[in-house]
Specification:
A 6-stranded antiparallel beta barrel has the order 1-2-5-4-3-6. It has a 6-stranded mixed beta sheet with strand order 10-9-8-7-12-11, with no helix packed on it. The radius of gyration is 18 Å and the shape is elongated. The longest helix is centred in the middle third of the chain and has 7 residues. By secondary structure, it is mainly β. It has 2 domains: 86 residues, Elongation Factor Tu (Ef-tu), domain 3 (Beta Barrel), CATH 2.40.30; 62 residues, Roll (SH3 type barrels), CATH 2.30.30.
């Protein structure tokens, strides 16, 4: 897979509805993803494009308001869905020298100097991101994006060296 401008990256997940005006709680996967909401008014939620009309920060989450969603019943439809942005926009606001695991999709993964496969997906969890790695035999590995497992990141050659995980 390439890093084409049309590739979408999840930036966070919508939570429960809040209040009677159709606001929805939102938790970004990374704190600097809030900048995307400040710069953009149209966001992708699931398969729909929604227009963000307002957001406000609380101590532990954001409250988002969307055009056309003015009741808790309408907001309920979007509970637990992710907000997505084009990879190019996410890459533009990412502080350097941070590496986004989403950049690694398509990269070759090495373990003990042997090719293990390619990164095919990145799963976001509350604890850490998890890489999905597959080889040509459809063997699949899940690797947490933590220093214990990600040993070397080589953007020039688009390779990762990792501690080999257990086959799933």
């Amino acid at each position: 897979m390439s890093t084409s401008p049309s590739r979408l990256v999840p930036i966070g997940q919508l939570g429960k509805t809040h209040g009677i005006k159709g606001e929805i709680r939102f938790r970004p996967y990374r704190p600097f993803f809030i900048n995307l909401l400040k710069q953009n008014h149209v966001v992708t939620v699931g398969t729909k494009h929604l227009t963000l009309i307002d957001f406000r920060e609380t101590a532990s989450f954001l409250l988002l308001s969307f055009a056309g969603i003015y009741t808790p019943e309408k907001a309920q439809f979007h509970v637990n869905q992710e907000i997505w942005f084009p990879f190019s926009e996410v890459e533009n606001i990412t502080p350097s020298p941070i590496n986004l695991p989403e950049q690694w999709i398509g990269w070759v993964v090495m373990a003990n100097n042997l090719v293990l496969g390619n990164v095919v997906d990145v799963l976001q969890t509350k604890a850490n991101d998890i890489l999905t790695i597959k080889n040509e035999n459809d063997e699949e590995w899940l690797v947490p994006v933590i220093p214990e497992y990600i040993l070397l990141i080589d953007p020039k050659n688009q390779t990762l060296s990792i501690k080999k995980p257990i086959l799933v």
